[in-house]
Design goal:
The protein has about 300 residues and is an alpha/beta fold. Helices cover about 35% and strands about 15% of the residues. The chain is built from ten helices and 13 strands. A seven-stranded parallel sheet has the order 3-2-1-4-5-7-11, sandwiched between helices. It has a two-stranded parallel ribbon with strand order 6-13. The protein has a two-stranded parallel ribbon with strand order 8-10.
């Protein structure tokens, strides 16, 4: 197996390093000894990285990001930036389509510089819910702008890097959760309803989902970066599926909670990623749903 060693001091540029997923990747690689260069927009909120006192975060206008690749000549590039992630923006093609050109410009620069590895984050939103297993291939069955544009970008990047010297990885990310997530996610909504005393109604409690704790996501991305034999589309999720009602029951510390046994059949719908590539290199999640939810709840309560 062709594996990168942290002793090689691999130079990794991470664009969008201040976001939820970008910060998780940055922290993991930095703590593992990689030479990391996080790049963010000027004035962007970088509170998720503030405690990394010896890490230099560059604030660079997005119009200059492409030039940073030629200037720094990194071994690897990770594109974690995306505008319009919040639910209110996901149906706007105008907002979503604005992401394509900047990322394609970075990819072109990476290809021209013979960058060893180019990783871009995809999303489970590229697919609609179904009863079928999600393979590590291209999909374009999305039902809203966010997923449609993600699939469009995936297709363009795949074509660009085909036959090049750069390894291209489309890391299709499923539901990542944890203390670093401040978005309008399920756990944050549950927390908000708890402190306000209001009832939070779940519209689809029986849906099965792939919930992945943030530490496990970060470790998966590190192993993808290190293992040069992994390329193309890679599902990054949890191979153990839970119904949405499970995560709600754990949050509420329900005494009647019992995990719902999963069997892939026509009666169970949701998102079921096949984790073939990560499993082939020995990766597996280490944080259970119960432990991850408890950690997240503790962190949110402490923060407030």
């Amino acid at each position: 197996m062709n594996v990168l060693s942290k002793s090689q001091q691999v130079s990794v540029i991470i664009f969008g390093a201040n976001g939820f997923l970008g910060s998780l990747i940055t922290r993991k690689l930095y703590s593992s000894g990689f030479e990391v260069l996080p790049i963010i927009r000027p004035g962007a909120n970088k509170s998720r990285l503030d405690d990394l006192v010896n890490l230099k975060v560059l604030e660079v206008e997005t119009t200059e990001w492409q030039k940073m690749i030629a200037k720094c000549n990194p071994n690897a590039i990770i594109c974690a930036q995306w505008s319009g992630v919040s639910k209110k923006d996901r149906d706007s093609f105008e907002i979503q389509n604005k992401n394509i050109e900047p990322i394609m410009n970075l990819a072109i620069a990476a290809k021209e510089s013979n960058t060893s590895t180019f990783i871009c984050l995809g999303s489970q939103a590229e697919l609609k819910e179904s009863t079928e297993t999600i393979e590590e291939v291209f999909y374009n069955s999305a039902t809203h702008a966010y997923g449609v544009v993600k699939s469009k970008l995936h297709s363009q990047l795949k074509s660009l890097f085909e036959g090049s010297n750069s390894r291209f990885v489309w890391a299709r990310v499923f539901s990542v959760y944890g203390p670093s997530d401040f978005s309008d996610s399920l756990l944050v909504k549950l927390f908000e309803s708890e402190i306000s005393g209001s009832e939070f109604i779940i519209s689809n409690p029986s849906k099965f989902w792939s919930y992945l704790y943030e530490d496990d996501f970060a470790s998966a991305m590190k192993q993808i970066l290190e293992n040069m034999n992994i390329s193309g589309c890679v599902n990054v999720g949890n191979p153990f599926f839970n119904q949405i009602r499970d995560i709600v029951a754990i949050w509420k510390e329900s005494l009647t909670y019992e995990p719902h046994h999963f069997e892939l059949n026509q009666n169970n719908s949701g998102l079921f990623p096949r984790m073939g590539k990560l499993s082939s290199i020995g990766w597996k999640p280490s944080v259970s749903l119960s432990e991850g939810v408890q950690r997240t709840r503790t962190a949110l309560r402490k923060h407030i």
